[in-house]
TrEMBL record:
This is Secreted protein. It comes from the Bacteria. It holds the Pfam family HAD_SAK_2.
Length: 165
């Protein structure tokens, strides 16, 4: 199973800015403050691999974006929706780079799902805009200020990991 993982509004509150020294959380808390919640849930699911679908991937190199994760999650990462678009022309399927600049998160995830012919997948994101009704069953929609600290979001993710729609 592939799990598409956003960072802001999922792993920590959504108010993050890209500063001179990298990403910084605006307000209370710290970056990746809810990382352990995801790591704990995935510990019982060794078959789950991660694809990074965070906007950080547009600004930072893939390895840097991946390496913000704790090791338990980092070793599960198999790619990023954005980096493949930049580096692998086959991933764009003839669509111009400018298309991907404005692509919604759902469009990026859907492209990966289609290219890799995924049957089992889920996405965790605080941005539900533009998601097709058919794909919403795969989405764990988090609240921007609660992310994976929300028991309802964790419960929904657990259901998807068990294969329940």
């Amino acid at each position: 199973m592939i799990l598409f993982l956003d960072y802001d509004g999922v792993r920590h509150p959504s108010l993050v800015v890209m500063g001179e020294h990298g990403p910084a959380l605006v307000g209370d808390g710290e970056l990746f403050m809810w990382a352990d919640n995801l790591a704990s849930l995935l510990a019982a699911n060794p078959h789950v691999q991660l694809v990074l679908s965070t906007s950080w991937a547009r600004r930072l190199p893939f390895a840097e974006v991946r390496d913000f994760l704790p090791m338990a999650l980092r070793r599960r990462v198999v790619g990023s929706t954005w980096h493949r678009i930049q580096t692998d022309p086959a991933n764009s399927h003839g669509l111009p780079y400018s298309y991907w600049q404005d692509a919604t998160r759902h469009q990026q995830v859907r492209r990966w799902v289609t290219l890799h012919r995924l049957r089992r997948w889920a996405a965790i994101d605080d941005d539900a805009d533009g998601w097709d009704d058919a794909d919403r069953t795969h989405l764990v929609h988090t609240q921007a200020d609660a992310g994976l600290s929300d028991p309802a979001a964790l419960s929904r993710l657990a259901e998807l990991l068990r294969g329940q729609p």
